[in-house]
Amino acid sequence: MDVARPYAAVASGVEGEALMVLAGTTAPLTGRQIARLVRRGTSPSVSAALERLTAQGIVHRQPAGRAYLHTLNRDHIAAPAVVLLADLRSELLRRLRDAFERWDPAPMHASMFGSAARADGDAESDVDLLVVRPLGIDEEDSRWRAQFDALNDAVYAWTGNHAGVIELDEAEVERLRRDPPAIVGDLRADGIDLAGVSVRALLEERR
Q1: pLDDT tens digits, residue range 140-184?
Q2: 3-state class of 39 per DSSP?
Q3: CA 163 to chain centre
Q4: Domain 6-85, CATH
Q5: Whose CA is closest to 89, among 28, 42, 20?
């Protein structure tokens, strides 16, 4: 799955790009505005795509001077599928949070970071996760390792991407605070909390 454009697994063309823009707002947009907002496509290709989508009834078009304003026809029977595609990143986060909620032993912390969190990767990008093992749980604990295996399998099944997991224990977190590697900058800037203590609390220096 293209982590920047998860909807491209199903709607990879310019029509899909235009629909994702319109699904994200109820404000009418001109073709030129949509062309500026799509991740892929030129102004002529977006204009042609909007013509086709209007003919299919999934997009409403109304004249506004010399331009046209476009909105997603949310009454169209395909509209729920379009909205779902536009929200696939949120669906991935929901599934990850649900998965960690069922962990026993539970992680002290779990978060997503990197290109999947920033939404700027591609189909080859890993889904980067940081997981902190709680005190008292050995790295080779069979229940703990089984959860990791299940998580790796689930992420691949959900996305087609591998999970890039960094696993630490609570003692290693203190070293992370004292001598922060590059990952700490990514976590501070883009980390998305999934379970346990927040990224902010995790990286906060103890006084």
Answers
A1: 999 999 999 999 999 999 999 999 999 998 888 888 777 777 788
A2: coil
A3: 13
A4: 1.10.10.10
A5: 20
